[in-house]
# Entry
Amino acid sequence: MLIQKTEKRDLQEILDLQYIAYQSEARLLGNDDIPPLRQTIKEVEQEFAVGTFLKLIDENNKIIGSVRAYVRDKTLFIGKLIVHPDYQGQGLGTKLLYEIERVCPHERCELFTSCKSQRNIQLYQRVGYKVFKEQDVSDNLKFIYLEKL
# Structure
């Protein structure tokens, strides 16, 4: 498996993978109308134009993982770290996270996830992220913001 910079022609495949990967989050939240499942190709293209996207490909050149980020004021804002469900639990998300940190110059990293995504929170804490803020989104949902200095 290989991590590479994403090309514009990869964006639809990444969006398709995003729809697959975020099904588990939708189940956790009891809501299949979450933003990652509503995102359009046009919105992904806009993110691509201002950020860095990485893809993880298998031996058949199929995209099985991705992460995207942008830098503002020396902070690397990381988003949509995804791995195909068939490949989760193998350390691939960790590899993508380390690689986006490596290729984007920064002094600080920031990301967020839902309070119900314990696997994600554990992954981020395992690689050095610390919770610095919680934000109520609804009566039964909080976003957990983590940073790494």
About this structure: The mean pLDDT is 94. The chain has one domain: 2-108. The longest helix spans residues 92-103.
